[in-house]
User: Which sequence fits this backbone?
């Protein structure tokens, strides 16, 4: 079954509303603000799974990508709370897992999730652009899923991945298109506009730094072969509240409150949420559900 949610109307909406400029965040912001606990990851992972309409899960796509035989040594850069590793582990029964993350709180959660399983696991607190603690030709698979936009030095990161990966290995880098989840950006920007919000809040997802659209060129400088695998999904909500939890937690209102900003008060965000909720409720009343279309995928580098 194909899951193609793209329509001319969605393409036209994307062209109209997704800004060319994207937000940028440092690894320190990731460590100290977004991932100092597992809340953001827990809510996002729950919503992406519970409200999807593509019958193939993200893990299903990754299993196709990674072609595991069960004996591979796998390195996961920015492993977060181990959500993906927990599901991959049975496919690595005679292999090993190394999870690296800059944020101790989520790394601890990953460690807890895989505790007591038979696949040997190693956990490293660090940044994906410094793999100096790892030897040359050590891993058969390396992954960087939905995290590369935080890494300070991308060239150094990819040089290091090349070094630690064995010949014949696969590096899977998963990211989004900048128009992914455009219906969420639509209700968000519509609300911001109605509130005459500062212009610098109108920016695309930080994944614009290395998106499915622009990432191939950079990766092509480091790897002999780069293939792109894409898939779509559509989250559908018939109750505004799960969407609102997702909207608030994901980079805090589409990045609007991701950094300290004295212009933006608690009242500002309360009004923003009310305006977003009203649009989502209206869509549900009119159409039966509120849809959020995802354009995502992986670069497979060899
Ligand atoms: C959106 S989460 C993705 C987690 C996991 N890969 C997944 O897909 O479920 C991004 C993760 O990257 C981590 N991170 C951010 N900057 C990093 C860096 N420079 N090096 C390693 N990990 C980093 C964060 O702490 C967070 O756990």
Assistant:
């Amino acid at each position: 079954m194909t899951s193609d949610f793209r329509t001319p109307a969605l393409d036209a909406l994307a062209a109209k509303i997704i800004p060319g400029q994207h937000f940028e965040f440092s690894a320190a912001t990731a460590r100290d603000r977004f991932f100092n606990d597992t809340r953001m990851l827990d809510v996002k992972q729950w919503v992406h799974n519970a409200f999807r309409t593509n019958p193939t899960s993200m893990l299903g796509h990754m299993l196709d990508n990674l072609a595991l035989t069960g004996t591979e040594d796998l390195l996961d850069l920015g492993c977060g709370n181990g959500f993906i590793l927990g599901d991959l582990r049975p496919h690595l029964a005679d292999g090993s897992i190394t999870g690296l993350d800059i944020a101790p709180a989520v790394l601890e959660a990953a460690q807890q999730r895989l505790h007591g399983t038979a696949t040997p696991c190693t956990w490293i607190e660090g940044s994906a652009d410094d793999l100096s603690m790892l030897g040359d030709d050590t891993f058969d698979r390396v992954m960087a899923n939905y995290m590369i936009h935080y890494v300070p030095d991308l060239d150094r990161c990819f040089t290091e991945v090349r070094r630690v990966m064995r010949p014949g290995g696969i590096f899977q880098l998963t990211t989004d298109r900048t128009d992914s989840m455009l219906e969420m950006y639509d209700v968000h920007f519509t609300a911001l506009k109605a509130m005459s919000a500062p212009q610098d809040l109108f920016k695309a997802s930080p994944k614009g730094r290395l998106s499915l659209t622009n990432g191939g060129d950079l990766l092509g400088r480091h790897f002999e072969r780069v293939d792109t695998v894409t898939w779509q999904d559509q989250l559908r909500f018939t109750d505004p509240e799960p969407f609102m939890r997702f909207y608030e937690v994901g980079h805090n209102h589409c990045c609007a409150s991701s950094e300290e900003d004295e212009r933006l008060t608690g009242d500002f965000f309360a009004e923003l949420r009310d305006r977003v909720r009203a649009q989502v409720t209206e869509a549900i009343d009119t159409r039966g559900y509120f849809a959020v279309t995802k354009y995502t995928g992986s670069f497979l580098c060899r």
